[in-house]
Amino acid sequence: MSTKHGKSKAQAKGAERRGAERFSVRDMKVDLQSQEAFLFAYVENISELGIFVAMDKPMPVGTKLTLKFPARGDVGPLTLAGVVRWINPPSGRHPGMGVAFDPLSAAQREKVVALVRAVAYLTHD
C-alpha cells in the first residue's frame, strides 16, 4: 500500500521515526571514543540528527561517545558528543550502530547542517 507521495506505509513510518533525511556517504572517516575504547571507522550514512557506522562489533546501546570528524569541504574539523541509540548485531545482515548526536549548540548545528548539505550535494546528482 502506498501513501499519496508514492512511499509504502512502512517507508513513511521509518522516515517519521528518523526525523531527518539520511544520505549515504563515501569515504567519511570518524574517530569514535568511549570510556573503554578508541576506534577509527567509516560513516555509512548521515543526517542532521546522527550517523550510522558499519562495524563487526557495535558498542552497546547507551554508550556515550566523542565523535571526531576531519575537515570535509568547507566544514573544518568537528568534534561532537553522541550516544549509541540502536545496533544491528554482528549476527545480522548489516552489523553496525546508529549514533545520535547529543544536543548540539547553535554553532555545532550549523556545521552539521553544512556537512550534511555537502554530502547530499555530492551524492545526489
How does this structure look, described?
With 125 residues, the protein is α+β, with helices and mostly antiparallel strands. It has one domain (25-123): predicted glycosyltransferase like domains (Thrombin, subunit H). 22% of the residues lie in helices and 38% in strands. A 6-stranded antiparallel barrel has the order 1-2-3-6-5-4. A hairpin with a 7-residue loop joins strand 5 (78-88) and strand 6 (96-101).
Write a brief structural summary.
The chain is built from two helices and six strands. The chain is an alpha+beta fold and 125 residues long.
What's the SSE blueprint?
Blueprint: H1 9-18, E1 23-33, E2 38-46, E3 50-54, E4 64-69, E5 78-88, E6 96-101, H2 106-123
Antiparallel strand pairs: 1-2, 1-4, 2-3, 3-6, 4-5, 5-6
Structural class: alpha+beta
Instruction: Please identify the top-level CATH class.
Output: Mainly Beta
Number of DSSP strand runs: 6
Average pLDDT, rounded to a whole number, is 83
Largest sheet: 6 strands, antiparallel, barrel
Output the keywords:
six-stranded antiparallel barrel, 125 residues, Thrombin, subunit H, alpha+beta, disordered N terminus
